Each structure stands twice: as C-alpha cells, then as structure tokens.
Amino acid sequence: MKKTVIIGASDNPSRYSFMAAQMLQQYGHPFVPVSNKSGDVLGQPILDIQTQPAIPDVDTVTLYLGPQHQPAWYDYILSLKPNRIIFNPGTENNEFERLARQQGIEPIEACTLVMLRTGQY
C-alpha cells in the first residue's frame, strides 16, 4: 500500500482533501494529514506543516494547497522524498513540478479521487 501525505489536509468533510483521506482509507492506503490547521481526519491528528514533521517511507504526496502557497514548502515537501507528487486540480505549478523532476520525483497533474476510483493510484 502507498503511504500518502496529504498536504493541505482538512477536517471539513466537504473539502476534497478530506474526501481523499476517506477514499485512501477505503482503498487501504495509509495517509498522514499535514496542514497549517489543527484537527483530526478520520482519527489521525493533522500534523502542523509549520513544524515540518519528519515522515518516513512516503510513497506519494497529494497536494491540496494552491500554487501561491506552495513555494514556502517546496524544500519540506521535497525532503519527504516521495516517489511522486500529485498536483490535484487547482494546484498545478510548473516551477514546483520542474523542481520535483530534478529530484527524481514524478509530478502528476491528476485528481487523487479519480486515480483511486479508476485503479490508477
């Protein structure tokens, strides 16, 4: 199963990041919610991105953070050494995608929910 870090996680069930957590859990993928907001998602505490928590064995980072807010976290997200970063709709960022590629990380412009539903995750 693919350990996934959700950047921009929310405990609000109407947010796509929450729906992604639900679906990841449903499909058996462990997830770690990370955000600048506190709370918990399906029993998992949201880790504070400000503290840049160390998270081992990350396969995927899925972004729910707009491109205007991403630059402050480039180094942190890249330091997680994921195999891929999913740029969900509205998070696309050519500069960050280029930086990821330079680190050997695959950037994917796609929707985590659709990828899970269609077996492409």
List its traits.
121 residues, alpha/beta, 6-stranded parallel β-sheet, 26% helix
Describe the structure.
With 121 residues, the protein is an alpha/beta fold. It is built from four helices and eight strands. The protein has helices spanning 16-26, 74-79, 94-102, 112-117, and strands at residues 4-7, 31-35, 40-41, 44-45, 47-48, 60-63, 84-87, 106-109. The strands form two sheets. The chain has a six-stranded parallel beta sheet with strand order 5-2-1-6-7-8, with helices on both faces. Strand 3 (40-41) and strand 4 form a beta hairpin. The longest helix has 11 residues, at 16-26. It is globular. The termini are close together.
Structural class: alpha/beta
In sequence order, what are the helices and strands, one letter per element?
EHEEEEEHEHEH
- Rg, alpha carbons: 13 Å
Could you state the oligomeric state of the chains shown?
A: single chain
> Mean pLDDT, as a whole number?
97
Q: Overall 3D geometry?
A: globular
Uncertain runs with pLDDT below 50, 5 residues or more?
Answer: none
**Total number of β-strand segments?**
8
Helix content: 25-40%
Please report which band the strand proportion falls in: under 5%, 5-15%, 15-25%, 25-35%, 35-45% or over 45%: 15-25%
Number of helices: 4
- The neighbouring-strand order within the major sheet is 5-2-1-6-7-8
How does the major sheet shape up?
6 strands, parallel
**Ends distance:** 10 Å
